[in-house]
Every structure is written in structure tokens, then in C-alpha cells.
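Researcher: I'm comparing several assemblies side by side, and this is the next one on my list. It has 260 residues spread over two chains. Same procedure as the others: predict the full complex and return the structure.
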Amino acid sequence: MQYLTDRKRAEGKGSLAHGAEHQLEVTTSSYMMTALVVLFLFRIAPLIGAPYEVVVEGLTRPFNFVIIALFVVSTTYHWRFNIKKVFEDYVPHGWDFAGMIITTALGWFFCGLGLFALAKILIASMIAG
Amino acid sequence: MADVNRGNRPLSPHLQIYKPHILMVSSILIRITGNGMTVGILLVLWWLLAAAAGPEAYEANIAWLTKWWLAKLVWFGLIWALWYHMLGGIRHIIWDEAVGLELETAEKLGWFLVIGSVVGAVLTSIVLLIV
């Protein structure tokens, strides 16, 4: 037994049987979300409310563009995943499932809206410049 | 017959049962800030879509979205919520490593979330106002 790692021993255990993998996924995403939030505050937040030209120039810089695109994708994913928990915990059985379906659809929609806006900003700046 | 009571169990939160303490409050605030930041997603999307709609539309939207005093207040709240939620996530990572779980340390971490998030939000807001 001492040759098995902690992870190997934990795999398949627990009520859902995939808690060990879930734990690693959530921990990994926690590190990445932390990094993204810090980068968002430094690189993107100063652009919010700035003059139009500054916003377009700032957002279409390669590094910033990747940051805001990842931010849109990961925050809408994180949102969709965690609003689900609110329905699981506080909403009576039956209605909770309806809420989760609506939340999932909305989360994807928000993600699409954000990426559409970013694509349009990029294309507009390429045409102008 | 573990499933007899399925679907008929009491739902949380059991707020009226426990006396508030820092570990409980700091945990609940993570959920409140997380759900509250739904507004943040919508506002950032609004800002991106406004920028995508061109210069005139952008200026017209910005008047409400960032220049209005009430909007500034909402943005400050969101910056605080983002800090709080992020620090809460960092505390989660620390606890997952089985570190800082002793009651005294855990309670200090709770206060760190509350105080750290306010300090972070004020500093961020000052920097953003200057830039």
C-alpha cells in the first residue's frame, strides 16, 4: 500500500466517486482564476470607462486581448457552475432543475456575447488601422 | 430506505439556528460576493458591447456605465467583491493543503478576508481613479 499515492487511494471513493479528480480540477482552476483576476485588475480594469480610442488600442494589444478573452470564458464558466449551486441549495426540487437549465443557457450566452464583442472590436480596429 | 425522504429535506441556509461568528460570516460573504458579481459580468459585457458598437455609441453608454455617480458606487462594490471572492479562493487553496485549520489561525484568516478585501478595494479604486 505504501507504493500508492494519496490520489490513487482517494480515486473512486466518496458518494460521487469522482471527488479526487474534481478536487484537482477545482484547485487548478483556483490558481488560474486568481492569476486572471489580478491580471484583469492591472491590465483591463484601467480601460473601463477610458476614451474610445484608448479602449480599442488597449484591448487589441495581444496580451490584453488574450487576458480579456480568457476572463470572459472563465468567468462565465465559473458563474454558470456556481449559480447552479444556489439552485441546488436554496430552490425546492423541480424548480431547481429549471433554474439550472436557464443558468447554463445564460452562461453560454454571456460567453458568446463577450467573445462577439471582442471579435468586433478587433475587426473594427484592423479595418481602421 | 435512505431515499424515503428524497426531495423533502430542509433547505439551507439555517441562519436562524446559529449565532454569527467570523468563520460563518466570512464563508457566507464568499457566496454573496460571488452571486453579486453577476452584476459585474453584465456590466463588463455592457462595456465590451458598447466599445464594439463604435465611438458614438460608446460615449453615450459610458455616461451611464462609468461616469454616473451611482455607477461608480456599484463599480466600487464590485471591486471589493472581486477582492473578497479572490481572497476567499486563496483561503480555500490554503485550507485544502490542510494548513491554517486550527481555530485561532482559521479565525484570523476570516478577518484577513474582511480587512484585506476592504484595503485592496480602496487601493485599487484610488489607483484606477488616478490612471
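Model: For your comparison table: Chain B has a mean pLDDT of 92.
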